Amino acid sequence: MSRLITVSNRVAIPRDDGKAAGGLTVGVMAALKEHGGIWFGWNGRTTDSEPHDPQLQTDGNITYATINLNRREFEAYYNGFSNDTLWPLFHYLLGFFHFDRQNFEAYMRVNALFARKLVPLLRPDDIIWVHDYHLIPLAAELRRAGVTQPIGFFLHVPFPDYDVLRALPDHEYLIRSLCSYDVVGFHTQRDLHSFQECVTQPLAGGHVLTDGHVRAFGRRLRADVYPIGIDVDQCAHMADAHADDGAVDRLRSSLHGRRLMIGVDRLDYSKGLPERFRAYERLLEHYPGNRKQVVLMQIAPPTRTGVRTYAEIREELEGIAGHINGRFAEVDWVPLRYLNKGYDRGLLMAIYRLARVGVVTPVRDGMNLVAKEYVAAQNPEDPGALVLSTLAGAARELDAAVLVNPYDTDGVAAGMQKALEMPLAERRERHDDMLRILRRNDINTWRTRFVSHLQAAGAEARAADD
Length: 466
Ligand code: ADQ
Description:
466 residues, alpha/beta, Rossmann fold, 2 domains, ten-stranded mixed sheet, six-stranded parallel sheet, 16 helices, 45% helix, binds adenosine-5'-diphosphate-glucose
């Protein structure tokens, strides 16, 4: 069997503290365990010197190969081009979009560096799976170095329409780079459609073939939809196992029977947090029966603190949270609890279960795993209701949630009210529907389908050579 080489900006080396990994790590680790192989990427450290050769750490059939990055290169590649240019662009948020040619050049250099450091570790029958927008040019760099093994790419964020993408001066380079892969995967049909629209523009001159493959820049590749899922049983099990932890008990008793609404997001402007806070204020205004009866707890650990817009959003949120609490709080009730830190996944799942309403209202999201985790963590006999943005990829699957437009303050407030009042029978029915979808399309379906398509691409290429 071929070894699997996964490449991502950061490598999640399992910790010895027994804490559960989440999201993408679960899928990547399962794929690596099945096939054996290497997880290659940045080790999280920056230095003033040039990067060393990969440090190798082996655990069973998996080797973690990590490199450090030069501080200035990292700043320009990661905080600059990846997170201040591509992230807002791909989320259709052009108001946050900045372009700086020096950052773009650093992005290309770091991708070339990744390729140089990875090539010596490769074997002829490996298959390579690259993750996310930080590494779009990696396949082209590997091809330039003579790599002929199948290379797949999965984009964890949305792929924008051509009219948005072309705000980027070098958008043709990105489209051409994506066409160096053999398999390119997206979360939703909508993202795939945008990609097909881009490759068929005159500047790319590509075609969508009758079998759904794309031919462009002299290559044939598979572009397809692979909605990421979760480990449903792991979430449910953790919610059960941690239900009586001290912290969960303290949270429960602090509520005094009030209904809990929960939001869990990285502190990021794409997650629609100011809009959510304003909708909650509107809920308390328009539906005053909720005063002293409901608590919204928003967990939002800061991320990408090196990017200025992330500091700004944090300041804005602190202002709105203070305003809401100042306006509505009573001596024995604080309507909004705003927590700026990360939590252990087990505790998080138990908190989801305690919450009557999950609020997931990004202004744009590739998928959004919190929405899925919230559903999986519920008690099926008495599940909470999910309020979900139509602009999250997850809404394509979880259409039994209370769907809202995050920009519509009154509409989100009405959605929150509907979720708070939803009768048990309706909550159960909607929860059953969503759980069925989560089980059918879980994290294992996601990774096995992608890897099998990558293997098929390798077999096709070998057949063509014979
Ligand atoms: P993210 O933008 O990070 O992921 P999301 O899909 O919600 O968004 O995943 C976040 C993960 O982090 C979840 O597993 C959640 O439980 C965890 N998490 C969030 N806050 C936490 C906290 N305070 N403490 C502990 N854990 C916390 C990107 C894309 C998404 C896409 C994923 C996977 O932006 O659209 O769904 O990748 O492809």
